[in-house]
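re: ur question from yesterday

yeah so i grabbed the chain u mentioned. its 212 aa long if i counted rite. heres the sequnce exactly as i have it in my notes:
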Amino acid sequence: MKINKMFLAILLVAYSTASFGSDEVAEAVKLTPNSKNGKVTYELCASCHEKSGWGKQDGSFPVIAGQHRTVIIKQLIDIRARNRENPTMFPFTGDDVIGGAQGLADVAEYVSQLAKTTEVGQGDGTQLNKGEALYKQKCVACHGANGQGDADNFFPRIQGQHYAYLLRQLQWIRDGRRKNANPGMLALIKNLDDKNLSAIADYVSRMELDKK
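ran it thru and got these structure tokens back, copy pasting raw so excuse formatting
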């Protein structure tokens, strides 16, 4: 499938302008992370995301193991700045808990090194062909052919993610409930109903994991 390079460029500009203009993101990404310190901090995160970083198959907590370090940093800062509504996470993202830019860099590095999982919650498998077609049409330009994402551009790895979590995030982005969502992504999915979003989420949840 050919990707419209102009459209991709527009997505990148829109996302960078709207979502991660924070100086703290840029600072944390540039720092040399200390994974050992990150492991200590992660003990707080493990109460929800599990020691493995695999979350819950029912989608109540997402898989974060193996996520791009840059993405983890950005999402933590967005939550801390209340640019992403996540009350459960608010108490765990303050300077007094996770630290400043260095603390963010450290825990993000540790999480990014955790082994990925194939124990992923999935949908009913009845709409996989539709999900694949919609994914290739709507998602592949940013998230990649196999959901691997793009660390340099803060596009998350979505392969190996729980179906229910994927569906919930797609619905929240479409419905305007996720304030830090990529405006380009909103434009792409705003007219999709729950059945179509479910098809995409189920297809993505079954993607083969990259080895690295």
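noticed a couple things. The mean pLDDT is 90. also The first helix runs from residue 5 to 18.
anyway ttyl
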